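TA notes. Do not distribute before section.
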Amino acid sequence: MDARLNYRTSRTAKKVMGHFMALGKVLKESALPAETQELVALRVSQINGCAVCVDMHAKEAAAAGESALRMNMVAVWREATVFTEAERAALALAEQGTRIADGADGVSDEVWANAAKHFDEEQLASLVISVSFMNTVNRLNVITQQPAGDYQVGQLH
C-alpha cells in the first residue's frame, strides 16, 4: 500500500510536519507521565482508526516497559482492572475529547473534574494538547492512507 501523499517530498508538508514533530517533543518532555501519554495516544489512535499511530505508540509503549496486557486492554479500559484511577481519568478525557461529534457537550464537567483530581494544571495542559495533537496527526495519516507496520522505536524522536 502506498500513501496518497509523501510528507517528506512536499515542501509545505515537510515544513509543517517538522513543526508537529517539535510539538511532539515538547509534549514528550512534559510533566504528564510517559505511560499516560502513550496510553492516551494509543486510545485516541484506535478510535480514529490511525494504523500508523497505533503501530508507533504500541511499539514506543512496549519499549518503555508497558505490558502487552495493558496495551491490549486500552480499547476496553472501562472494564479493565489494570489501569490506575489517574490513567482512567486521562483515558475518559481523551475519549470525550476525541469523540466531540458524538456528544453535543464535548468533554463533560464530570470527566474534567475527575481528571483535575489526578493531574495538576501543567499535566492537564499537556493532556489536553496531547489529545488534540493526536487527533490532528491521526487525521493527517488517515486522509493520506499512510501505511503502517514498519515503525521502528525512536524513529521520529
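Switch to the second chain here.
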Amino acid sequence: MPVRPTQDASGKLMVPHNEGSTTPPSISPPPFIGGGGRAGGPGGMSDWEWLTRTASPLVNGQSDRRPLTMGNPAVLGLWSFATVTILLGCYNLFLPHKPNHIILPTALLFGGIAQYIAGFLDLFYGGTFSGTILVSYGAFWAGSGMMMLPSAALTLDSYATEWDLAQANAIYHFFWSFYTAMLVGISLKIKSGTFILTWCLFWVFITLFLTAIYYITDVSAVLRVSGMFFIYLYREKLN
C-alpha cells in the first residue's frame, strides 16, 4: 500500500519509507495507462509522480505537485459556520423583529449540512475535538434551518401561547450556550488547543446566552447586542 507523501518546509515532497526515514520507497509505480514506460521511461511515471498530482504553484503555494491526500475539511467547516453567523448577526442587529427566513438555504445547506459533513471528514482526518465542534454546530444550524420550513414550523403550534414558545426557545438556547461553555473548558485543557479557538468558543457562548436572555425578556436591545457579538465572532474566525 503506497505511503502518503508529505512536504518539508521548502515544499519538497518526502515519502516515509521506514520509521524515522524520509527516503523514497523502493517500490515500482503501477502501470501507466496510455504509456507503457516505467519510472524514468518515456510515457512513464516516477515514484514521486504516481504518489502526487499536478497543481498550480500559485494555488498550492509551494510546488507544482501536490500529494494525493484529502484536503483539510476544517476550512470548509469554519467558512460555513462564519457565513451563516454573519447573516444571522446582521438580522439580529439591524432587523431584530423581522423574519429571517431568507437565510434558510444558507442555514440548512451551508451552515448545516456542509458543516456537518466537514465535521465527519475532520474526524476521519484526525481532528477529534475540531470535528466534534463542526458536527455539533452543523447539527445546530441544520436544525435551525429546518425550523424555518413551513412544515416543521407547524410543530410550534403545540405551544398554547407566545410566552410558552419564548420559554422553549430560551431553554433551547441556554442548553447550547452551556454546551459551548463546556467546549470552552475543554479547549483550555487539550494539548492542541489554541487561544483563538478558546476565544471564538467564548463568544459563541456569549451570543447564545444573550439570545436566550432575549427570549425571556423580549428586549430587542439584548438581541441587537447578540448580533454585534455574532459579527465580532465572524471577524475572529476569519482571522
